Amino acid sequence: MQCFSLTLHDHIAHLVLNRPEALNTMHPAFWRELDDTLTHLHRDGSARALVISSTGKHFSAGMALETFGGAIAMDDTSAEGRAAIYDLLTDIQATFTKLETLRIPVIAAIQGGCIGGAVDMVSACDLRYASADAFFCVQEINIGMTADVGTLQRLPKIIPDGLAREMAYRGNRVPAARAREMGLVNEVFETHDALVEGTLEIAREIASKSPLAIWGTKEMATYTRDHSVADSLRHMAAWQSGMFQPADMMETFVAKGEGRDPQFDDLLPHGTGL
Residue 236: which domain range? Predict the structure, then answer.
C-alpha cells in the first residue's frame, strides 16, 4: 500500500499524501514509508527543498487506530506492554524529527483538516502554508489523551506559549486565517491548487540558492531554537570554519555580473542516516 507519491523535478522533491478515501490518516505503512523516504532524501543530496502536500478533503486526520494495534498492542497492564508502547512512540517521534534534521527545508502545504498527528507533523516542518479552508486541531485532548508525537514540544517554539497551550487544552479548530495571525502559517492561499502552486514556487526559489548555505541556515536556525545565544554563536563559528564555501559566493557574484542564474553543485550523497 502506497501512502504517498514522491516526485523529484528541478531539485524539488514533492511528497503527496494520496489516501483521501481514508482522510490521509497515518497508519503503520505510512510511518515505514515516510521514514524510508526521508532517509533516502537526506542521503541522496539531489533535492534542495521538500514540499509535502495532500489530496482530498483533508490534509490528514491524524493517527490511524491500527498504528497501535497488530504486532504491538495497547497493553498497559504489564511492564512489557508499557515498554512496547514506549518503543513505538519513540520510533514515531524519530520519524517526524527527521523532518527537522533533513539537510533541506521542508514546506507543508495544508488544505482542509490538519488534525491530531498531522499537527505533530507540520510542527516539525520548516515552513507552513495553508489554503483558506484549512484548520488545525490538537485532537488528542478530545479523546482523553496527551498529544505525544511533537506538538507540545514544537508548537510553543512556533507560536506564543499561551496560544499553544490554548490549542492543546481546548482541542478547538483553529481556522487558517487565525493560524496566520498566530504565526502558525506563513501565508494563506485562496484555493488548494493555488496553495500547491505557491509552495512549489517558494521551493523553487529556495532551490536556486547555494544548497550548502541553505543547509547551514537550517542547521543554525534549528540549533538556536533549542540553545542559548552564546552556545549558538559558538556552533555557528564551528560550522562556518568547516563548511564555508567561497566558490558558491564567487559563483553568485560572477552570475550576477553575467546576467544569469548561479549554478551550484548538489550536496554530496553520503551513506549515513539522519
Answer: 211-258
